[in-house]
Amino acid sequence: MAEFSQKRGRQRDEVLGSTVDFLLANARLVLGVGGAAVLGIATLAVKRLIDRATSPRDEDDAKGDTTCLEESWKELTLLKTTPRLQPRTPPAALSQPASLPAPLPSAPEGPSDTEPQPLPQPSSPAPLCLTFQEKLLAFERDHVTIPEAHVALAKQLAGDIALELQAYLRNRFPELPFGALVPGGPLYDGLQGGAASRVRLLVPLVLEVGLWGLVPGVDTVARDPRCWAVRRTQLEFRPRGSSPWDRFLVGGYLSSRVLLELLRKALASSVNWPAIGGLLGCLIRPSVASEELLLDVQHERLELTVAVLLAVTGADAEDRLLLAWPLEGLAGNLWLQDLYPAEAARLRALDERDAGTRRRLLRLLCGVCRGHPALGRLDRCHLTQVVLRLGEEEVDWAEAALGERFLQALESLIDSLERASLPCHFNPGVNLLSGLREEEIDDIGFALYSGLQAPECLL
């Protein structure tokens, strides 16, 4: 009986051994060397448990138990130290054990198909730390730069609207000599950032040479250095009524307010904007909420605001540009001097002299202030004076120094707010902060000071 039990045990061992060999052969192909080692250790442990459960216990059991315990600790250590490999997709047929030929002695040692290269350990990515200069350039790329297609479309719409409005003015007021309507503004001078959202459309008045003269605003009852009065002259030789513009005189001066009201009524009630918009593929509506003459243009690809500006040019030797602007009080009939063309030309000349980035800095400042609850009170005119003042200095204006110039502009703004004085670059007698209340200046100054401590928060 004992002999029969030993024979059955040997047969069971042979069957179990064959099974283990079969599993290991396939595991080597599927799991690789590391996975086969893990499976082999686990199978060996299971085999020993079966042997101990079925084999008779003799006098060496205590010694065998100690040896098995030591080997089990070693196997556990191997299980912990064996690297875990990512499972691979098994081949189509793995039901039969594959016998691989032994490598030739002369063959160079190297990786084979059945022994995969050890996978590199995944390393945690290093934290991405960008400098302020890099963050500023990223902000410019994502929030300031306007797609060229939008710029071209906005210019095309503005040009078409200018032609339609000029034809209307000639038909509606044939006795008034208006000049050619010229679209322009920051979008045309490379100073617009964020979106192609605003265009200036100048409507020039053609005044007779020798019949008109300019009087500085400080010499009028308004005492406003920003403005000029357009006075009718030569009345003894060319009496009133000799000029078609005499109908808009108030107290011997050409009234900007009267002309504004005339054009406002015409744009709101006489122009067939639905027909013009249908012809141009957009929707055009005059803005009734603003005191300025604005046209809101809605296109499927962008929204545009066209500011219609009545202008007087060439009335003196210096060729000043004067705009009919909705001014209050005693200055209501005066004309506001527009210094934007001179400012844009100066910035362009400075940048061309040293291949600088002054205009880019202005666009960045406008992009930061736009939409900010406190800094939104600073318009393009305020920021232009700061850039012009810095731009005249002989410092590095290369792209690599753009971040430094940005911080310097913030410091300059804070200094101006502390003194409550920001003089106009081309007219130092005008303080551009005079229109802000003390509380507004405090809010702007606090926002700028906080931004100077952590400039990334402004982007």
Report on the architecture of this protein:
The protein is an alpha+beta fold. Among the domains are: 146-338, Beta Polymerase, domain 2 (2-Layer Sandwich), CATH 3.30.460; 355-458, Poly(a)-polymerase, middle domain (Orthogonal Bundle), CATH 1.10.1410.40. Helices cover 45% and strands 11% of the residues. It is built from 11 helices and 11 strands. A hairpin with a 4-residue loop joins strand 8 and strand 9. Helix 1 crosses helix 2 and helix 10 packs antiparallel against helix 11. This is Mitochondrial dynamics protein MID49. Pfam families: Mab-21_C, MID51-like_C. Interacts with DNM1L. Its main location: mitochondrion.
List the keywords.
MAB21L/cGLR, 9-stranded mixed beta sheet, 459 residues, Poly(a)-polymerase, middle domain, Beta Polymerase, domain 2, single chain, alpha+beta, 11 helices
In short:
This protein has 459 residues and is of the alpha+beta class.
How would you summarize the topology of this molecule?
Layout: H1 2-54, H2 61-81, H3 132-144, H4 148-172, E1 182-184, E2 198-205, E3 212-216, E4 227-232, E5 249-250, E6 253-254, H5 256-270, H6 273-280, E7 283-286, E8 294-298, E9 303-312, E10 322-323, E11 335-337, H7 340-354, H8 358-369, H9 380-391, H10 402-419, H11 438-453
Helix pairs in contact: 1-2, 7-9, 8-9, 9-10, 10-11
Transmembrane segments: 22-46
Protein name: Mitochondrial dynamics protein MID49
Domain Mitochondrial dynamics protein MID51-like C-terminal: 150-343
